Amino acid sequence: MKNISLQTIKRIPTYYNVICNILSNKQKFLSSNFLSDLMGIDDTTVRKDLSSIGCNGRPKQGYNIIELKKHFEIFLGFNQPKNAIIIGAGNLGCALAKYEKFKKYGLNLIALFDKDPHKIDLVINGIKVYNLSKIQEICKDNNVEIAILTLPEDEAQSITNTIIKYNINTIWNFSPVNLSVPTSIFVWNQDLVSNFLTLSKLAEIKKHKI
Amino acid sequence: MKNISLQTIKRIPTYYNVICNILSNKQKFLSSNFLSDLMGIDDTTVRKDLSSIGCNGRPKQGYNIIELKKHFEIFLGFNQPKNAIIIGAGNLGCALAKYEKFKKYGLNLIALFDKDPHKIDLVINGIKVYNLSKIQEICKDNNVEIAILTLPEDEAQSITNTIIKYNINTIWNFSPVNLSVPTSIFVWNQDLVSNFLTLSKLAEIKKHKI
DNA sequence: TAGATTGTTAATCGATTAACAATC
DNA sequence: TAGATTGTTAATCGATTAACAATC
Lengths: 210, 210
Hints:
Two copies of one chain form a homodimer. In chain A, about 45% of the residues lie in helices and about 20% in strands. Chain A contains nine helices and nine strands. In chain A, the strands form two sheets. In chain A, strands 5-6-4-3-7-8-9 form a seven-stranded mixed beta sheet, with helices on both faces. In chain A, strands 1-2 form a two-stranded antiparallel sheet. In chain A, strand 7, helix 8 and strand 8 (about 170-175) form a beta-alpha-beta unit. The longest helix of chain A is centred in the C-terminal third of the chain and has 18 residues, at about 190-210. Chain A is globular. At the A-B interface, helix 1, helix 5, strand 9 and helix 9 of A face helix 1, helix 5, strand 9 and helix 9 of B. Chain A binds a DNA duplex (24 and 24 nucleotides) through helix 1 and helix 3.
């Protein structure tokens, strides 16, 4: 397996979505051109991406769809579930807890946490809400790798400082805060307001260009 | 205003979050180095970004925080609200409807839509749920620009085909589908499963490097 | 064999970073 | 004035795209 670029890794889930959507067809092979057309990228990019993660096509035929799908699933780690907790049992936290698909794709939700006494002991989609004071215990007992932060911005940094002591190495951050963490911690920012602001600006620019 | 790169636009909301978080300090000015340290990027990148959107600093002093904040707000269009509808009143759609911050940042939610008769006429955070058949009427009456898709994947494409006839030019797509749209339509993909798969892979790679 | 499609090397494009003059 | 910090040009790095040989 060659060096895989950041941009390639970001595209793999999209390739996966695309081929899942055409599985019902009787088609057994697809070409890089077919994928590149659907995704609005260059066909050379598709071949480079697939080649870099070790997918081989056949000249004149293309890529075997079933093989491709399996390859993506192994690459993306569907069968190596990661344990995660959600911190903040508000609307978004609860919606994520109820999102059925996560499990299938390897995200195993262990518990929710909140400081509101009214929420403690609620069970959301089979996942229990605990008081924040239980985080350490539950992280230790369950080998939790990922913390999903759905907290108000004024609480996100201090909770982060706490949880990084408990072996969590990945933070999926939905709070509108730029977290300060040691270099060993990986943070993925998913603040929806920031995303809205970016998409809205890009839409505006596109509109003016046309 | 010079040419603004895609990467710059993606960083502006983060700059904004950072300066909002230090507003309480008495500090009046900040340096590009201060911002670059917090964000983990090069200070030259900060100066280029700010310069490209027309923010001017002063040698030896840095950038005026209040001016910077105002500049970002104008650039990001906080005061030019955009009307949007949410299609799919499931857990995620409802959580977004309840997210109080959107309004403040210029996202004006007009209505929710669903096909489930039990959900029709519910009011979520002041926003009413309508039958899908009402989309055309409501889009026309309210100058709706943005559609937020929180639908199962098998419905997303057909709804998309419908709504692009009603003057919607921007789609914020939470469904795990690569939508086909005319070039005039701007699509921002926010599928949370894809994001999880990408972040999980990047975390794994980072772990192996250390 | 001829033609379609892969896979890779080279060229281009865009973004980041280094170097440094301008300036308050 | 000396020093810190901006703002910009040039160099580097990484990603995309073009060109094309390999191959089924």
